[in-house]
């Protein structure tokens, strides 16, 4: 699959907000978020973040693990649950069948709404569960089922590697292998 077809979107992966999620520990969300940011960097994928303001001064900052890996990434503020419209304007790949690689909290709200918006706009959607978390196992599972019923794919960073990395001997392939080793080693 061509890398130019994909955009990575981090939704509400902000300091403090990850602590509210119950389906995955904050440490695991941070580890998955860092790995996804490294994956985007290794494959030179476009990456964006979207967050909701928590007050007049904006919201909590993006997770340190993402900021350190992708320091120049655009962060779009929004006022709705769905983040797709806030980042897609002027950034759509000019190819057929674009892919949105999506991660965030809460799976039942921002991730679900963003995925459905993208699917309605005829994008393919990959929800990276390594970097998602929800309120409860039951409600998160229901959100994932809804995404899948509409054509989205629940996936992992390891599975994304099999989809996006064609040659493990190339420097980008070696970087992705290193990212996967990091996930295995915690």
Q: How large is the share of residues in beta strands?
A: 15-25%
Question: What fold name goes in the CATH topology slot?
Answer: Rossmann fold
How would you write the strand order of the largest sheet? 3-2-1-4-5-6
Radius of gyration: 15 Å
Outline the biggest β-sheet: 6 strands, parallel
Q: Indicate the overall shape.
A: globular
Kindly report how far apart the N and C termini lie: 28 Å
Q: Number of domains in the coordinates?
A: 1
Task: Give a written overview of the molecule.
This protein has helices at 26-42, 64-69, 84-88, 107-120, 137-149, 157-164, 171-185; strands at residues 6-11, 46-51, 74-77, 99-104, 124-128, 153-155. With 186 residues, the protein is of the alpha/beta class. The protein has a single domain, classed as 3-Layer(aba) Sandwich (Rossmann fold), CATH 3.40.50. The protein has a 6-stranded parallel β-sheet with strand order 3-2-1-4-5-6, with helices on both faces. The protein starts with 5 loop residues before the first strand and ends with a helix.
Summarize the SSE layout with pairings.
Layout: E1 6-11, H1 26-42, E2 46-51, H2 64-69, E3 74-77, H3 84-88, E4 99-104, H4 107-120, E5 124-128, H5 137-149, E6 153-155, H6 157-164, H7 171-185
Helix pairs in contact: 1-7, 4-5
Provide a brief overview of the structure.
The chain is an alpha/beta fold. The chain has helices at residues 26-42, 64-69, 84-88, 107-120, 137-149, 157-164, 171-185, and strands spanning 6-11, 46-51, 74-77, 99-104, 124-128, 153-155.
């Amino acid at each position: 699959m061509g890398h130019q077809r994909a955009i990575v979107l981090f939704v509400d992966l902000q300091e403090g907000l990850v602590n509210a999620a119950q389906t995955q520990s904050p440490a695991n969300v941070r580890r998955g978020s860092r790995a996804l940011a490294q994956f985007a960097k290794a494959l030179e994928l476009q990456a964006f973040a979207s967050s909701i303001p928590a007050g007049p001064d904006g919201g909590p900052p993006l997770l340190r693990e993402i900021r350190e890996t992708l320091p120049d990434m655009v962060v779009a503020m929004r006022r709705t649950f769905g983040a797709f419209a806030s980042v897609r304007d002027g950034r759509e790949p000019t190819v057929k069948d674009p892919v949105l690689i999506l991660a965030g909290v809460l799976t039942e709200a921002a991730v679900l709404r963003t995925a459905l918006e993208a699917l309605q706009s005829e994008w393919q959607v990959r929800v990276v569960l390594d970097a998602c978390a929800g309120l409860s196992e039951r409600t998160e599972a229901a959100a994932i089922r809804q995404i899948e019923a509409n054509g989205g794919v629940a996936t992992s960073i390891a599975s994304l590697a099999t989809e996006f990395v064609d040659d493990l001997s190339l420097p980008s392939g070696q970087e992705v292998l290193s990212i996967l080793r990091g996930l295995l080693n915690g």
